[in-house]
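Allow me, if you will, to draw on your knowledge of protein folds for a short while. The matter concerns a single protein, recorded as an amino acid sequence and a row of backbone structure tokens. Could you please explain, in whatever detail you think fit, how the structure tokens follow from the sequence? I remain grateful for any guidance, and I place the record below:

…
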Amino acid sequence: MCLNEIRRRSRHRVESLDAPHPDQEDRPAHQLEDAKNFSPPDALLHEELEQKIHQALSELPENQRIAIALCRQDELSYEDIARVLGCSLSATKSLIHRGRESLKQKLKPYLRTGSWKETPT
């Protein structure tokens, strides 16, 4: 959920209402906003969210953490991840599913309230 939120936020571009229409070729380069640049409050929230994701990832069992990292960061297929981990394809799918479910449960309270309180399991 958090990774999707980060991706969603990075897709929304900021454009000045005073800026000329994008079809105008004489538009100065300084009026274009990079999609990765956030306003200071958004940048702070983005950084905090990334810290919470990394903290939640570090709390996962090692095999789940590695499987998720290979899937999300390295964009490997489930078959490739299974080869790297030395386990079956079904075990790999299970690791990734359990890891994602754990992350969802760990991050859900933060995403709802902005508070980092552990929920009893």
User: Anything to note?
Assistant: The two ends are 19 Å apart (CA to CA). The chain is about 60% helix and 0% strand.
